[in-house]
Amino acid sequence: MRRCAIRASAVALFLAVTTHAADAQDATPYDAITDEPARAAVRTIIADAAARGLPTAPLVTKVREGLAKQAAPERIRMATALLRDRLATAAEAMAPSRAADELTAAADALQAGIPAATLRDMRRIWPSKPLTVPLGVLAEMVANGVSRPVATRRVRELLLKGATLTQFAALGTTVRRDIAAGLAPDAAMELRSKGVLSLIESRTGIGTTSTPLRPTGKN
Question: In whole angstroms, what separates CA 166 from the centre of its chain?
């Protein structure tokens, strides 16, 4: 009995020490926030995100970025709260997926100005496929100057046609290069996305007019 008690005590001590060490490691970025109310608020924001099943790694990264830039404590708190809110909106739009990378990409798209309705539409088109790469490309294209209507329409077309993740990633790379070379962002997006669509159609034998994407207007 005494040996069992000693063993149990040792296990309890080990768990207490490792838990404290983990807490200390997690606390590292927050401890550098000089303002105590802001520091406490950031802790609460991240704890709230965890309780709601949202990924917390992006929030910790946001705190670290703010500290690296020597941002004011209140700005760090606000940025962390806004990101938590975007992650919550992303979780609703991406449901039932709770994948951290997908929610993070959706939150980035929201920050780029992509409406939540667009995210829900993308989820409807790809209900069981990961949208991390298409979302990342969409956000990147808008960030690089492609208008939201053009970027959204072209990404939606590719989703409907069953473009692969590799094709989405290649699209982002080529459009970015075209823009850097001086081509207008919308023109680059139109040109390169049509190229991907042509490749898909050549392999499947399905034409661009087989699936109406918009009720009116020109491509």
Answer: 18
